[in-house]
Amino acid sequence: MIEIAELVLRAEAMGVRVEWGRDLPVPAEYDHARRVIRMADGRGDCVTRCSLAHELGHAALMHEPGGDYLAQERSANMYAAKLLISEDAYRRAERIVGHDPRALAKELDVTLVMIAAWRMCHRAA
Fold first, then answer.
1. Quick one: which H or E segment has residue 30?
2. Which of 1, 16, 67, 82 sits a CA distance of 20 to 30 A from 7?
């Protein structure tokens, strides 16, 4: 499993700064103009990791305001899912808990959104 600290290092390697604060109404957001990811404190490790990986997707894919919002969200989720869930880990989790998305999310310590995005990636492949 990729830890939050490793995701922060990946952001820095991409030239993206990660800032933390309490005043954010959402778990995270990416400011393309400033190359900054803002993360809300106190969201729990699972949501924080998934949100940070998602925002890294926006940065890596060079998403800017005014683009196709739904397409950008979908591609950022797919980027994050591929980053957080290896094929081996997913298959191992399926052997342990079966195919239920909630059980898989719990086993893999990711959100349901990441499970859906991972499945979308691997259906398209």
1. strand 28-31
2. 67
Q: Which one, of 106, 70, 108, lies nearest residue 87 by Cα?
A: 108
* pTM of the complete model: 0.93
Residues 74 and 52: their CA atoms lie apart, in Å, by 15
Tokens of 84: 């957080």
Helix axes 69-84, 112-124, angle to 10 degrees: 90
Beta bridge mates, 21: 40
Q: Using CA atoms, how far apart are residues 27 and 35, in angstroms rounded to an integer?
A: 17
